[in-house]
Design goal:
With 98 residues, this protein is mostly helical. The chain has one domain. It is 88% helix and 0% strand. Helix 2 runs antiparallel to helix 3. The longest helix has 61 residues. The two termini are 42 Å apart.
Length: 98
């Protein structure tokens, strides 16, 4: 089995990019929020424009969370790379002393 493909698909950066792309598409393409019973209830409470803006704000919130998750993954990977580089530098120093 090729586990590299599954590892790439479970990468938080990849998942975050897919989530951001989907939410941006939803922001650009959806302009009617009265198609389900939940959205009809939201339209009854907030009105058509209010429900649409509630949806847009939720999309922006999720975009922000996905971008934050991507940033945390990049930051943690940089930290891991730095630790590995330090360990390699120490190992090379120990080998030179021997």
């Amino acid at each position: 089995m090729n586990y590299g493909v599954m590892r790439d698909l479970c990468n938080p950066r990849f998942i975050g990019i897919i989530v951001v792309a989907t939410l941006v598409a939803a922001l650009l393409l959806i302009d009617d929020v009265s198609s389900s019973w939940r959205s009809a209830m939201l339209v009854a409470i907030l009105g058509q424009v209010g429900a649409l803006w509630m949806f847009r704000l939720l999309c922006l919130l999720f975009i922000g969370l996905a971008l934050w998750a991507i940033w945390q993954d990049v930051k943690s990977q940089t930290r891991v790379d730095r630790i590995i580089a330090q360990r390699n530098k120490i190992d090379k120093g120990v080998r030179r002393d021997e």
